[in-house]
Amino acid sequence: MAAPRSLKGMVGIVTGAASGLGRATVERLIQQGASAVVLDLPTSEGSNVAKALGNQCLFTPADVTSEADVKNALAMAREKFGRLDIAVNCAGIAVAVKTYNAKKDLPHSLEDFQRVIMVNIAGTFNVIRLAAGEMGKNEPDPDGHRGVIVNTASVAAFDGQVGQAAYSASKGGIVGMTLPIARDLAPMGIRVVTIAPGLFATPLLAGLPEKVRTFLARQVPFPSRLGDPGEYAHLVQAIVENPMLNGEVIRLDGAIRMQP
């Protein structure tokens, strides 16, 4: 049996890493002895995050939908750390708008729908396709392994609520491309796994009133609370360590099934 893989000495790039799930993932990678590249928008707190985490962390300002930006980020990662073993896609956006507002006689903005699809699906795919090329340069381990890619979907891919047409479609797209990409990259020794988080204590939810956050937490069967970003990061670590996890979508949601 192949031994669990150790993160020590690995190099990971994490998108959307200036806050929330991405930041927790970067912190976890460094705690486990890996080096990490924080990829986030130039306007983000990415620079401060990297400084706080020390020499094994690098900030690369980038828009995930830009080929040039992502290529530059990967080149910086190779220049600083010499290789790439892990790519974690946490960057994403959301809108909450009904498909058609009958009271206002107003359809959902096509521009908003396209923007969510572009960032969440095309942005994720852009990072995957370019990171795979970097990982392909690695010497395979005895199991033939060269790298692992972890994507972030959402329970909204399965239980989309009112007003989540764009967001659910984008996350469903990430779910749908997980297996074919895993099959595409299998000959290179690169695994692809997607995490579908439920309700997590991220900046997105932190902006809600306390009463609303408490209500949401009670909807989770067990444990009846919001997920901690560190729990997402822990699952990323487990995916990297376990070489048989591939082509799968894992719900991380405390058994919640979202109501309409």
Q: How does this model look, in words?
A:
This protein has 260 residues and is α/β, with parallel strands linked by helices. The protein contains 8 helices and 9 strands. The protein has helices at residues 20-31, 46-53, 67-81, 110-135, 165-185, 203-206, 210-218, 229-241; strands at 11-15, 35-40, 57-61, 86-89, 100-101, 106-107, 147-152, 190-197, 249-252. The strands form 2 sheets. The chain has a 7-stranded parallel beta sheet, sandwiched between helices. It has a two-stranded antiparallel ribbon with strand order 5-6. The N and C termini lie far apart (45 Å). The mean pLDDT is 95.
Feature tags:
single chain; 260 residues; alpha/beta; seven-stranded parallel β-sheet; two-stranded antiparallel ribbon; 8 helices; 42% helix; globular
List low-pLDDT spans: none
- Spatial order of strands in the largest sheet: 3-2-1-4-7-8-9
Level of helix content? 40-55%
* SS strand fraction: 15-25%
Distance linking N and C termini: 45 Å
The count of strands amounts to 9
Q: What profile does the largest beta sheet have?
A: 7 strands, parallel
* Mean pLDDT, all residues: 95
Which structural class should the secondary elements be placed in? alpha/beta
Radius of gyration: 18 Å
